[in-house]
Amino acid sequence: MTGLIQVTTATEHRDDAVALAGAVVQARLAASAQVVGPVTSVFWHLGEYGTGEEWQAVFITTADRYPEVEKYLAAHHPWQNPQITAVAITAAAPACIEWARTAVNAE
């Protein structure tokens, strides 16, 4: 295991995803973020089926920083109940692992 995770959320507008990405990386909660989109989401929400165009914000951070990333995203996300998920990065180049760890632990 690398100790790294990929955290994902989505927003309705590109500018919102870019703002979240920039703030989380500047706060050193994540080593990097990518904004991807637009993507089409298909979902159930509040008992209704729907589709929508969204922008994904994808963060690379360490597993121990996840609670802080989740807390920040939940507090600053434009949606009341945003989807915030994380998956473990099971393999990565050693230099990438070291870079990410250093980036989120720098003072």
3D structure, described in words:
With 107 residues, the chain is α+β, with helices and mostly antiparallel strands. 34% of the residues lie in helices and 39% in strands. It contains 3 helices and 4 strands, in the order βαββαβα. A 4-stranded antiparallel beta sheet has the order 2-3-1-4. A hairpin with a 2-residue loop joins β2 and β3. The longest helix is centred in the N-terminal third of the chain and has 13 residues. The model has no long low-confidence stretch (mean pLDDT 96).
Q: What portion of residues is helical? A: 25-40%
Helix segment tally = 3
Give the C-alpha Rg. Answer: 14 Å
Give the CA-based shape: globular
Jot down its keywords.
alpha+beta; 39% strand; 107 residues; 34% helix; single chain; 4-stranded antiparallel beta sheet
Question: How would you summarize this macromolecular structure in one to three sentences?
Answer:
The protein is of the alpha+beta class.
Topology, element by element:
Blueprint: E1 4-11, H1 14-26, E2 32-45, E3 48-62, H2 66-76, E4 85-89, H3 94-105
Antiparallel strand pairs: 1-3, 1-4, 2-3
